[in-house]
């Protein structure tokens, strides 16, 4: 096919799901040719060349025209000087099984758009359309065992765990263990339960309130490209396997701020326990008043010395709110 087939776009609260266009290939290539995205996709070769993106866009047209599969662009609208401008954020797809009664759900979202519920919103809308229009009896999907974020999306859409299997991932160069999910038509069309049970991994992050002689605390701004970019947080980072929280902090403080801290100067203070979309954060917060060297934003991050009373003026991750309240009482 040389032009996109007719398919009326599906609209959700924030997104448009529409047929891919030839001119989407450039943006698509940029978003998929990212290891963090490609590594979760079974049928994508990495590095992913632009020519493959162009060829793939055209192949989706033939599949829609034949009624075999619906690979749609997930598009957001942004304000431009001449009205709304479309921006490709990902793709969502349903592919009919050979019995044409059930379909496989798939999706990906560009890394910079993670954490906003895009995949859930798009997948739920496409599933609803397919159940109502094609009369499907059920929908299934799989997610790599190390992709908790995707498993959480599938469960929010209403699919239930249905075992495990091995599946070939071209991006990873061979078979990989996946978790399977499925749901029947009735369950998918029923209103969602009040609190869907989502299995999340626990993420251990060590953080520190560095306190200066005036009782001010150092906050660092999360750089662009990381989840929760732009928010102010306590310096620290993920604890690596086999590492103690104190050792992780000493390492992170050297890497991020170029200072030397000894374990005896890290006083356990409190902790945050917070459920994020894809993981549950456990974050011990230490207090530290003594360090060697001069603080320097090694990663170019903005830094600010802030009194706890003034932290309300700094946008911080939701997990940090109770920590600020504790610092207010203590300092
Ligand atoms: N360091 C730090 N992380 C926090 C705070 N509050 C909070 O929710 N987090 C979360 O804890 C996680 C820390 O991960 P990170 O991305 O900073 O870890 P890292 O430095 O090891 O990053 P990397 O994986 O890019 O190397 C993020 O999901 C972050 O949003 C905080 O006050 N300080």
UniProtKB/TrEMBL annotation:
The keyword Repressor does not apply. The keyword Methyltransferase does not apply. One of its GO terms (molecular function) is acyltransferase activity, transferring groups other than amino-acyl groups. Its cofactor is Mg(2+). Residues 201-331 form the Nudix hydrolase domain. Its EC number is 3.6.1.55. Belongs to the Nudix hydrolase family. This is 8-oxo-dGTP diphosphatase.
């Amino acid at each position: 096919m040389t032009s996109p087939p007719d398919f009326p776009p599906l609209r959700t609260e924030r997104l448009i799901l529409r047929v891919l266009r030839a001119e989407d290939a450039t943006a698509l290539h940029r978003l998929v040719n990212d290891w963090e995205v490609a590594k979760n996709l079974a049928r994508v070769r990495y590095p992913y060349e632009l020519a493959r993106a162009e060829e793939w866009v055209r192949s989706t047209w033939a599949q829609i025209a034949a009624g075999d599969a619906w690979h749609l662009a997930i598009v957001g609208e942004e304000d431009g000087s001449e009205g709304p401008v479309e921006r490709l954020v990902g793709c969502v797809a349903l592919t009919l099984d050979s019995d044409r009664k059930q379909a496989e759900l798939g999706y990906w979202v560009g890394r910079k758009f993670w954490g906003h519920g895009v995949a859930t919103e798009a997948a739920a809308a496409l599933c609803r359309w397919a159940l109502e229009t094609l009369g499907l009896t059920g929908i299934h999907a799989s997610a790599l065992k190390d992709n908790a974020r995707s498993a959480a999306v599938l469960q929010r859409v209403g699919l239930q765990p249905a075992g495990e299997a091995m599946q070939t991932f071209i991006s990873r160069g061979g078979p990989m263990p996946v978790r399977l999910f499925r749901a029947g038509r009735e369950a998918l069309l029923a209103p969602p339960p009040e609190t869907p049970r989502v299995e999340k991994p626990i993420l251990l992050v060590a953080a520190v309130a560095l306190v200066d002689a005036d009782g001010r605390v150092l906050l660092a701004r999360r750089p662009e490209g990381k989840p929760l970019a732009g928010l102010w947080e306590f310096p620290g980072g993920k604890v690596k396997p086999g590492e103690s929280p104190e050792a992780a902090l000493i390492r992170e403080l050297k890497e991020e701020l170029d200072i030397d801290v000894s374990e005896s100067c890290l006083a356990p203070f409190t902790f945050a326990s917070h459920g994020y979309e894809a993981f549950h954060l456990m974050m011990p917060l230490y207090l530290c008043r003594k360090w060697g060297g001069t603080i320097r934003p090694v990663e170019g991050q903005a830094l600010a010395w802030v009194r706890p009373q003034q932290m309300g003026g700094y946008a911080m991750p939701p997990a940090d709110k109770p920590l600020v309240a504790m610092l207010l009482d203590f300092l």
